[in-house]
Amino acid sequence: MKKALMYGAGNIGRGFIGQLFSQSGYRVAFVDINSDVIDKLNKDNRYPVKILYNDKSEEIMVENVYGINGNDIESVSMAIAEADVMATAVGVNVLKHIIKPLSDGLKRRFSEGNANSLNIIICENMLDVDHYLRGLLLETFNDAEKLKFNEQVGLVEASIGRMVPIQTSGMQGDNILRVCVEEYSVLPVDKAAFKGDIPYIVNMLPYSPFQYYIERKLFIHNMGHAMTAYLGYYYYKDEYICDAIKKPDVAESVKLAMTESAKALSIRHSVPLSELLAYVDDLIARFGNKQLGDTVFRVGRDLRRKLSKNDRMIGALLSCREAGIECKAICKGITAALHFDADDADRDLLNKLSADQILTDISELASTDKEYKEIMEHFR
Fold this sequence. Notes:
Layout: E1 3-7, H1 11-23, E2 27-32, H2 35-44, E3 46-52, E4 57-63, E5 65-69, H3 73-82, E6 85-88, H4 99-111, E7 118-122, H5 129-138, H6 143-152, E8 153-157, H7 169-172, E9 179-182, E10 187-190, E11 204-207, H8 211-236, H9 241-245, H10 248-269, H11 273-287, H12 296-300, H13 303-306, H14 312-323, H15 328-337, H16 344-352, H17 355-362, H18 370-379
Helix pairs in contact: 3-4, 8-10, 8-11, 8-14, 8-15, 10-11, 10-14, 10-15, 14-15, 15-18
């Protein structure tokens, strides 16, 4: 039986990619430093995924799985050396911390003579994350290892569209491995990045050029989701995304912003606008899934990252600017973000930096930019 390695046994790891690996016939090893999760995976060798609809749910069992403690570098490297396919879902800020075990595993793979291609599907919310990961890994290899790495290892960007909320104890019930997710389960990936044959994985959609899917996810889905949190919190102090998007004024503003971004992406990637607008409508409906219980706090937190130049809010603004599309609604969402103090870290940021400092220092907008002036006018 073929082997898959899932680095990260969290919401996306168990609730999406691990499920697809298992359903595709792989024996799935999960690597994580959460010893409770790893022990339970090794005890049960299966776990439940609960799919939530607005008015019902269904549960499936993900079979043929086990766990490896991420602190056991020897076992991790052995699993990487033997894997047929691999994925990461650890969070952008954690990627640098798994470079050593990942590098050790690849070196072991090379030295043991495993010449089969290994494609690593990178499930992290970051533009050009494949270049980032490649740079970190290349620093650890000698010239011969670099040659094998470039020949045999594919770093494949993925666009993660499935929404998985913070798992509460109520959602997990009697099993800490249970993950509650929405129905959507398509996995677009960068077709051009694979080395060797593209492995069969249920619901995986290889696509090229992939930049379109990356920007569609970040500048429409992630931007609209975050804006729902910021407006819902600012106007109504809503706790849940499903409540915020049901407010007509919030929904209208979010849809306008997503439409602005859709127009820009339609121009940039020569994609029919009707296709993108249908995607917008589908997302608005999915944001309203009350059973997900997704919180405004989870979706909106981490302003330093989400208001940075290449992330969802400012990235969408700059995409519109480049395409010559007005982005008044996106500016409104950014203004609301400048008031988002629902998280301690964000409250600390807003207390330390003024709105104009955030826009210039973090978002890297110039005070002469018309969008900067519009945001500051809204803010005042």
